[in-house]
Amino acid sequence: MAKPETELTSKDLEIGSIVTEPGSARKYKTGDWRAQKPIFDLEKCIKCGLCYIYCPEGCIWQNDEGKFEADLFYCKGCGICAIECPKDVITMVEEEE
Protein backbone atom coordinates (compact mmCIF):
# COMPACT_ATOMS: atom_id res chain seq x y z
CA MET A 1 0.00 0.00 0.00
CA ALA A 2 1.38 3.39 -0.97
CA LYS A 3 1.99 6.04 1.68
CA PRO A 4 -0.11 9.21 1.61
CA GLU A 5 1.79 12.21 0.17
CA THR A 6 1.99 13.78 3.64
CA GLU A 7 4.03 10.82 4.93
CA LEU A 8 6.62 10.55 2.12
CA THR A 9 10.25 11.34 3.01
CA SER A 10 13.54 11.43 1.09
CA LYS A 11 14.00 7.76 1.96
CA ASP A 12 11.09 6.98 -0.35
CA LEU A 13 12.93 8.30 -3.43
CA GLU A 14 13.87 5.74 -6.05
CA ILE A 15 17.53 4.72 -6.18
CA GLY A 16 19.49 6.84 -8.62
CA SER A 17 17.25 9.87 -8.09
CA ILE A 18 15.41 9.14 -11.30
CA VAL A 19 12.62 11.60 -12.04
CA THR A 20 9.67 9.35 -12.75
CA GLU A 21 7.10 12.13 -12.97
CA PRO A 22 7.66 15.88 -13.41
CA GLY A 23 7.15 17.94 -10.25
CA SER A 24 7.19 14.88 -8.02
CA ALA A 25 9.77 16.36 -5.59
CA ARG A 26 6.94 18.31 -3.92
CA LYS A 27 5.67 14.98 -2.55
CA TYR A 28 8.85 14.31 -0.54
CA LYS A 29 10.00 15.98 2.68
CA THR A 30 13.53 16.48 1.41
CA GLY A 31 14.67 18.49 4.44
CA ASP A 32 14.80 15.45 6.70
CA TRP A 33 18.55 14.89 6.14
CA ARG A 34 19.80 18.34 7.14
CA ALA A 35 22.23 18.83 10.03
CA GLN A 36 21.28 22.46 10.71
CA LYS A 37 18.07 24.44 10.39
CA PRO A 38 17.38 28.17 10.14
CA ILE A 39 15.71 30.04 12.99
CA PHE A 40 14.18 33.40 12.02
CA ASP A 41 13.97 36.40 14.40
CA LEU A 42 11.13 38.12 12.54
CA GLU A 43 11.35 41.23 14.74
CA LYS A 44 14.60 42.11 12.90
CA CYS A 45 13.28 41.34 9.39
CA ILE A 46 13.25 44.38 7.04
CA LYS A 47 11.42 42.46 4.27
CA CYS A 48 14.32 42.80 1.82
CA GLY A 49 13.82 39.30 0.39
CA LEU A 50 17.52 38.48 0.02
CA CYS A 51 16.99 35.15 1.80
CA TYR A 52 14.22 34.37 -0.70
CA ILE A 53 16.38 35.33 -3.68
CA TYR A 54 19.46 33.35 -2.63
CA CYS A 55 17.78 30.17 -1.33
CA PRO A 56 18.88 27.44 -3.80
CA GLU A 57 15.97 25.20 -2.83
CA GLY A 58 13.20 27.79 -3.17
CA CYS A 59 11.87 26.96 0.29
CA ILE A 60 11.73 30.54 1.62
CA TRP A 61 8.25 32.09 1.49
CA GLN A 62 6.70 35.42 2.44
CA ASN A 63 4.14 35.40 5.25
CA ASP A 64 1.04 37.63 5.53
CA GLU A 65 3.10 40.39 7.22
CA GLY A 66 5.55 40.46 4.30
CA LYS A 67 8.34 38.85 6.31
CA PHE A 68 10.18 35.73 5.15
CA GLU A 69 10.25 32.25 6.65
CA ALA A 70 11.58 28.83 5.60
CA ASP A 71 9.51 25.76 4.80
CA LEU A 72 11.46 23.25 6.89
CA PHE A 73 10.00 20.27 5.01
CA TYR A 74 12.25 21.24 2.06
CA CYS A 75 15.11 23.24 3.64
CA LYS A 76 18.45 21.40 3.33
CA GLY A 77 20.20 23.54 5.97
CA CYS A 78 22.84 25.01 3.67
CA GLY A 79 22.85 28.36 5.54
CA ILE A 80 23.05 30.58 2.46
CA CYS A 81 20.01 32.53 3.68
CA ALA A 82 21.75 33.26 7.00
CA ILE A 83 24.93 34.42 5.24
CA GLU A 84 23.05 36.74 2.86
CA CYS A 85 20.72 38.32 5.44
CA PRO A 86 21.99 41.88 6.13
CA LYS A 87 20.20 42.13 9.51
CA ASP A 88 21.19 38.75 11.01
CA VAL A 89 17.55 37.66 11.15
CA ILE A 90 18.50 34.04 10.45
CA THR A 91 20.58 31.86 12.75
CA MET A 92 21.56 28.32 11.85
CA VAL A 93 21.16 25.87 14.74
CA GLU A 94 21.88 22.16 15.06
CA GLU A 95 18.96 19.97 14.04
CA GLU A 96 17.64 17.87 16.90
CA GLU A 97 16.16 14.42 16.41
CATH class of the largest domain: Alpha Beta
Q: Mean of the pLDDT scores?
A: 86
- In terms of per-residue confidence, which ranges show pLDDT below 50 for 5 or more consecutive residues? none
The profile of the biggest β sheet is: 2 strands, antiparallel
Q: Largest beta sheet: what is the strand line-up?
A: 1-4
Q: Which structural class best describes the helix and strand composition?
A: alpha+beta
Through-space gap between termini:
27 Å
Order of helices and strands: EHEEHE
Predict the CATH topology of the largest domain: Alpha-Beta Plaits
Number of helices: 2
CATH architecture of the largest domain: 2-Layer Sandwich
By DSSP, the count of extended strands is 4
Proportion of strand residues: 15-25%
Shape: elongated
Q: Any idea how many domains? A: 2
Jot down its keywords.
97 residues; alpha+beta; Alpha-Beta Plaits; two-stranded antiparallel ribbon; elongated
Model description:
It is built from two helices and four strands; from the N terminus they run βαββαβ. A two-stranded antiparallel ribbon has the order 1-4. It has a two-stranded antiparallel ribbon with strand order 2-3. The chain is of the alpha+beta class and 97 residues long. A hairpin with a 5-residue loop joins β2 and β3. The chain is elongated and about 45 Å long. The chain has helices at 50-54, 80-84; strands at 36-40, 60-62, 68-70, 90-94. The protein folds into two domains: 1-30, no CATH class; 34-97, Alpha-Beta Plaits (2-Layer Sandwich). Helices cover 10% and strands 16% of the residues.
